[in-house]
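Work Package 3 committed the consortium to producing structural models of liganded targets before the mid-term review. Because experimental data for this complex are still outstanding, the team generated a predictive model from sequence and the ligand definition alone, so that downstream docking and mutagenesis planning could proceed in parallel. The input record is reproduced below exactly as it was submitted to the modelling pipeline, together with the SMILES string for manganese (II) ion.
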Amino acid sequence: MKVVFFSDAHLDKNDIQKIEFVEKFIDDVCHDADMVFVLGDLFEFYHGYDGYIFPWYKSVTDSLKNLVEKGKTVYFIEGNHEFHMGNFFQNYTGIQCVHSVAMDIEGKKTYIAHGYEISKFYLTKFLKTPFVGKVMDTLGPEITWSIATMARVFLSNKKKSYNNKAMDLFREYALKKFDEGYDVLILGHSHMFDAFEHQSGDITKQYFNTGDIIRYCSYVEYNSVSGFELKKYSP
Ligand SMILES: [Mn+2]
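The resulting structure, written out as tokens with the ligand in place, is given here.
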């Protein structure tokens, strides 16, 4: 069994090369996976509309759709830049759009999320409310995209660099999840790839952060032979 986890590409409208890079990653690394988790912030901005996919996101969406058509299970975990992928996106692609996933992966109780709940970012929480979702629905894709473009200066984590304090916050959260009974925790959002192990009795618990598929080419892979591993993609 092979499972791939990646996140935080923050693909923007004119990011042609980055979009092609992610599509190549999907082709190269995910083609033989059984399950693929997009851990959020694949897109710099997304709000789902009926019958509509932002044209600049169509090709990468089709790459993921293609995985579903090949029989793989694909989860899209919404990040803080994705507001409501919506039924149309789910029905069109066959991808399951969720906020977090708790599942057993070959005996390991695994929790998978984007990770924005760790930082107390009230603007994100406000923007995620059903009220704001309704406003985006009403404004339609073109106007919403324009507003998002103007507002991104307040939202973007793109320029985040390595920061031990932030990294520790994620690790502390991991310890909390281990206490709740999880064996493996996988997050994104920080843009800092990370891996650490925690001994709990005779069980080794593991935390991973997928980092940033564009900047560090980092991702996490599980396979039945070697377990969970932090990896670097070299095309
Ligand atoms: Mn994020």
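Reviewers should note the following from the model. The first helix runs from residue 16 to 30. These observations will guide the Year 2 experiments.
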